Known about the structure:
By secondary structure, this protein is of the alpha/beta class.
Amino acid sequence: MPNRLKIVYFNYLYDLYEGSLGSTIKAQKLMAELKRQGHNVRVYWLNAKQEGNGSEIKKQRLRTLLKKKLSRYVHEANQILSNLRYYFREKEILKKESPDLLIVRLQAYFFSAVILAKQKRIPVLLEADCPAAYENRKFFLQYLKLPLINEWIERINFRLADAIFTVSEELKRYITDRGIASERVKVIPNGAECGGVRKEKLEQIRERYALNNKTILGFVGSFHHWHGVCNLTALIEKTVSYDPNVTFLLVGHGGPMASELREFVRTKKMDKNVILTGFVPHSEIPNYIASMDIVLAPYPKLDFFYYSPVKIYEYMAYGKPVISSRIGQIQEIIQHMKTGLLCEPDDLDDFFVNIRLLLEKPELRLQIGECARRMVQSQHTWRHRGKALSDLCKALVHNFEELNDGKNTNNRRSFYF
């Protein structure tokens, strides 16, 4: 089995450090860990938003204006046709790099890379950390779409990939339900790093927001519907009524619920108890989490909770007691009353009882937080995830070479892990 591979990674995310920050960080961490494992990794962000100046900004404004007028009707056609542009760019990259393995992030509408890999006989590993067709149908209602075109393109990616890795068992079921053999799909969840907190930064945060002598309840993330913002506002109101000395430190920006959250703080006159930090660079997040006493993840009840929440791993990595919904992968990570507290989704009374418990028992907070930190450190760091991905890459290349030796040249789809 090869120990050191030449790997090319293609990623099509657009807003890397805004709405797609979590996926961007995941990709950066995993590719860095593959390098640490000794592989030669070349990363290509093929669709990343470019910051312009002068005339470029004017052109961007014009494009934005045209998009508002036309995107509903031409978005899908434009995305599909962009595969031609990507095909020739990717072809040049693969010719130049001559990799042992191509890793491609699944993105709605894009399929050029898996076609190229088939043509060039390069094994391809598909990173499927979201159900692309499902998300496109559910969350991008502003665009007109042809029936089943997203599902067809997604199926092309699934079937042409030599192996697939995804972040949760729920998402693996989504893939296997579409006719992909279970043995071809590997679950590699998200993770976290332990450490990185700077004492002077922590003190600056506490002073900036007047957090000293307060009990801090925290939340990190964008304010989307699936993050449970409505649950969060209800819990803020209940908790402040119970203990006016608590402060909620809400770290993040963006998301469709951000304006409603600001309006809640204003109308309920919660500005003394709720701090909205706005955008915080990811490198600073550990210091903000370290300033919290209790952390919240009040996800609503969702029929399809396919996420692997980075925030849960990060909360635990920095020794914080998490109060979270009992849902999806979270209930696989957290052991109730040992490494965190689990509540029924949308059961605000259940959440509030657990908040009160931790407010009244600071020693329990420390105990649970420390157990959580040790658990993440021993099982769920990005280094653990990188090692699992490295093993998968080596096995894939080894099996691909064996199957493509001689008469097995046309039998790419037949090997499993």
